[in-house]
From TrEMBL:
Residues 1-14 have a biased composition (Pro residues). It is a multi-pass membrane protein. This is ATP-dependent zinc metalloprotease FtsH. Its main location: membrane. It is found in: Cell membrane; Membrane. It is an enzyme of class 3 (hydrolase).
Amino acid sequence: MAPPPNPKLPPRPGGTPLGGMPPRRSWAVFLVILLINYWVFSQLLPGADEPVTVPYTTFREQVAQDNVSAIYSQGTSIEGRFKSPVTWPPANAAGAGSAAPAPGVGPIASRAPSRTSATFTTELPTFFDRGLEDFLIRHGVEISATPIRQGSGWATLLFGFGPALLIIAFYVWLWRRASAQGGMGGGGLFGIGRSKAKRYDIDKDTRVTFDDVAGIDEAEAELVEIVDFLKSPQKYTRLGGTAPKGVLLVGSPGTGKTLLAKAVAGEAGVPFFSMSAAEFVEMIVGVGAARVRDLFKQARESAPAIIFIDEVDAIGRARGQAVLGGASEQEHTLQQILTEMDGFTGREGIIVLAATNQPDVLDRALLRPGRFDRRVVVNLPDKAGRRAILDVHVRKVPLAADANLEELAQATPGFSGADLKNLVNEAALLAARRGEAAVQQKDFLDSLEKIVLGPERPLLLSAEDRERIAYHESGHAILGLLVPGADPVHRVSIVPRGQALGVTYQRPSADRYNYPEDYLRARIIGMLGGRAAEEVVYGTRTTGAENDIEQATQLARNMVTRWGMSDAVGMVQLAPRQNAFLGGPAGFGGDRPFSEQTASLIDAEVQRIINECHVQAKRLLHQHRKALDALVASLLRQETLSEHEILQATGLQPAPQLHGRPMVPNAASQA
């Protein structure tokens, strides 16, 4: 009894199931391929022992020269083998004509292309030479009764039909493989239309829950309702409501967007399909849309489920910009996502989560209600959040008694969850390399410097260079203590790290959310402290202030063009808004939205702010020259000083603090 047909494989026209052999018309194509293959190989690749036709006189000359090893004669035709291959016609055709040509091998043969072969054929003349046999025997020529060339039938078949048979076998294999994957229409050739999404099941992979997420409580609270719906959908549908179809997670890189999505799936206990948006788009048109269809099909079969698309901006950018005059593959993929998200009602138990750090570039149709209904912002953690994240990552790390996570959380403003995880890992590796039984506070601080500035560089500096670097860094540190509103100086070092020859590390005493003008000016004064110290002590300048000047110029330009802190320019936006999640310096773009006169005024105001801060930095260092010299002496002895050691060496007390948060992580001023 024949087995029942596979219900998953639709029947092909004519009753042949898709999982069978290719259709009958393909075999006619196969036969044509075989014939063409045989003809091409016979024309382009003649046999390796194909003989060359030579005149009878040439044959006798080669015999006389003992260059003929054997012959076979049938009628007037002679076939033989040379001891050394012979080229005929020779390159010098005129010279070859001195010999009498054999019948049918006259001037026409001399114009034929030259060939070199170890076998030959020739024709006996009508006046047969009766002494030919003795002549051959005298010169040691073997007279054979069997043909010299005996072709191999297997070799003929191999070269004549082998390549075509390989092509046919490869085609049949592709057909059967595509059939096993659900047909050419589902997976496509090589399965390129199939989704590459990774499925995570809580019974197979390590389960991630909200206990593994820390420091982003606001975003976590927004997703609790999603988890509740996946667990108990009837709680919400009984009154006619539906759960959100999509949730867009927006945040800086490393803030835990992917971790949040996995935690939602882990808490709800449903399958989790994860895929990067860049994996949808391929060079072949239509592949992205096919993968979208396959992804949503898999999710429907496993419902309730969660689909997570990372970096959705790769395919979700606003349409009409990618290809001038036509739709691009990215737009086809986006349109398929829009269609699929409209295709389910919300009662199927499928939630689409997507992550991006460029929400401004997304297509408006993707963000409308009914697709991505909610937008959850995942911010960088504050001090309490950083402490909670550190607690999560040190669960399996033995800590020494002096390890102070509270101090570490305060010293890492602007760090994301991924940065903090890397910090703990680097500290653990450093402690293991030092042979310690537990991770100490020094390991954390050294790892922090390595992450921010790079590893130590074993440079051999002269005494004069070390002293100059010490004055440069001491200038930053002294002004950090004297200027009201500046962030407290946490550490100063003249150990070369990365591209810096020295570093002054400042940290805010509390998280800041606003930036007073006095605080920004205090930062510029501190940035210019290194150059000011060199001018006060040596009266000359070096290239060590390059990074300081760059940071000070950018900060002063932002004060003028973005924050309206110049009376001459006024409260006018003269720089494009920065991406809140990617950062980067503000720029004017291709076309400046202001005149040349305004540009000159901006340059003048930026220069004024920097010059005023530079003058104030030099004045303060002149007034506290003794504290500057004392700090330099301590630095030359110890190379690295902590906050307490800095205060002890200078005898100064920190200036009063202003409240606000640094615009960017105030990690260090580098020499």
